[in-house]
Design a protein that fits this description.
103 residues; Beta-lactamase Inhibitory Protein, Chain:B, domain 1; 5 strands; alpha+beta; single chain
Length: 103
């Protein structure tokens, strides 16, 4: 009986452990509307959203990514992502924001 109970608890624990999760860090998306191409600078972005989840380069330009993804075993995952490309003067050149958390 103890062996069956232990097996059941182990299966239950594994199921719960892998049934949901997150990637990234949640960020305040209400500030996205304040971003303006060719005006907003890197310091403002840092103040509004904090340290980016990922940093990279695209064609020699700095790119910051803010990402928050959730998933669960049953149902669809949700996400919001903000990708910002800066010019050589650290001014926003372009950005893209997607959000399925609010759906």
């Amino acid at each position: 009986m103890k062996r069956i109970l232990a097996s059941f608890l182990a299966i239950l624990f594994i199921t719960v452990a892998v049934s949901c999760g997150t990637v990234g860090k949640n960020f305040d998306s209400s500030r996205v509307k304040n971003i303006q191409n060719n005006q907003t600078n890197q310091t403002q972005i840092l103040d509004w959203f904090g340290v980016p989840y990922k940093e990279g380069n695209e064609n020699g330009h700095t790119m910051w990514t803010y990402q928050y993804d959730t998933w669960q075993a049953i149902g669809d995952g949700k996400s919001k992502d903000l990708v910002i490309l800066f010019d050589e003067s650290n001014i926003v050149k372009a950005y893209r924001y997607t959000d399925t958390l609010s759906d």
